[in-house]
Amino acid sequence: MSRRMVLILAVTCAVAVGNIYFPQAIGPLVAAGLHVSPDSAAAVVTATQAGYTAGMVLLVPLGDRLPHRSFLVVLLSLTGLALLAAGCAPALPALIAASTLVGLTTVGAQIVGPLAAGLVAADRQGAVIGTLLSGSTGGMLLARTFSGTLGEWLGWRAPYLVAAVLALLLATVLAFAVPTTPPSSRQPYTALLAEPLRLLRTEPDLRRSCFYQATVFAGFSAIWTCLALLLAGPAYGLGAQAVGMIALVGAVTMVCTPLAGRLVDRYGPDPVNLVCMLGVLVSAAILTIGARGGTLGLAALTLGTLLLDTAMQSGMVANQVRVYALRTDARSRLNTAYMTCAYLGGSAGSWLGIHVWSKAGWWGVCVLVALLAALALARHLRALYKFEGSPARTRVANADGRGHRPDAGGSDQASYGASVTRPRRRLTRRGHGGHATGAAQAPRAG
Question: 42 CB contacts (<8 Å, ≥6 apart)?
Answer without folding.
Answer: 27
